[in-house]
Amino acid sequence: MTTPHTAAEKAHILSEALPYIQRFYDKTIVIKYGGNAMTERHLMEAFAKDVVLLKLVGMNPVVVHGGGPQIAGLLQRIGKQSEFIQGMRVTDEETLDVVEMVLGGLVNQDIVTLINKHGGRAVGLTGKDGNFIHAKKMLVKSKEKADELLDIGQVGEITGIDPEIIQVLDARDFIPVVAPLGTDSEGNAYNINADVAAGKIAGVLQAEKVIFMTNTPGVLDKQMQLLTGLTPREVDELIADGTISGGMIPKVGYAVDAVNSGVKTAHIIDGRVEHALLLEVLTPEGVGTLIKRG
Ligand SMILES: Nc1ncnc2c1ncn2[C@@H]1O[C@H](COP(=O)(O)OP(=O)(O)O)[C@@H](O)[C@H]1O
Ligand SMILES: CC(=O)N[C@@H](CCC(=O)OP(=O)(O)O)C(=O)O
Predict the structure, then answer these.
(1) Boundaries of each Aspartate/glutamate/uridylate kinase domain copy (predicted)?
(2) Are 56 and 170 in contact (CB under 8 A)?
(3) What CATH code would you report for 25-291?
(4) pLDDT in tens, 82-118
(5) Who is most buried in 3, 9, 41, 49, counting CB within 10 A?
């Protein structure tokens, strides 16, 4: 049980938000909402309220969501196994159907409905809508043979982003909720890692912040202690010495890519903490790991 705050403490906490509201007014904040941070309903409700609040105080939140565990759940129900190569789900035609159903349908609409329930005006879209995320087939380098490229199916590498649809929605006070799917000029659909999509969208929008909400307190060192601040160079060192592995690799990789493209700061925060988003944006505390250019 937390001790209740007195009226004076509450007033102090509220007034502390003022400089952050002023600083981030009319700025774009891209929020990557990871599938692992979406497991509990009360956390999803708190997340939706936070997004609505940020919009109402004048920021432009853009939600880019994942859904890895939710895709795994549906694949399991149809008796299909998934394989990951370098953090990317090998995506055959049948898997792509499930990915499109879960990301573009179930998860996207769930988030949209929650935000709207709390008074926001969320609009769900995938990167296919308005031909907004352009992609091509991604080939990954084999770990065994450096010169060999592996075909992992319908996994997309982003070749371009047309931000107009997002800008139009922002300007009219809608909250875009983006599922990471893309298409090529032939109309083929691609499954895109949500961290990649969030980092690239933040870069194209020249966002103030990109915030990755996941299921760890942030980036941890070898002793499992939180690293509160990192530069792109330090991130490279932590990947090289194996401290950062698995699903954290694309996350920090695209966080660095975003700050190198002009996004002011990237944050990896714990989506299991209630109102983590609000704490990150509107309080002096900040939470998780901050990545910015050194
Ligand atoms: N150095 C590290 N610090 C924190 N987490 C790490 C680190 N290295 C690897 N990880 C793993 O990365 C995971 C987060 O990535 P991922 O499972 O892809 O999450 P999401 O679904 O939110 O994208 C963590 O749960 C953890 O297991
Ligand atoms: C190519 C690829 O791996 N795509 C991801 C897309 C969803 C995602 O990234 O979800 P999280 O952020 O919850 O992990 C996948 O199929 O799982």
Answers:
(1) 27-270
(2) no
(3) 3.40.1160.10
(4) 999 888 999 999 999 999 999 999 999 999 999 999 9
(5) 49
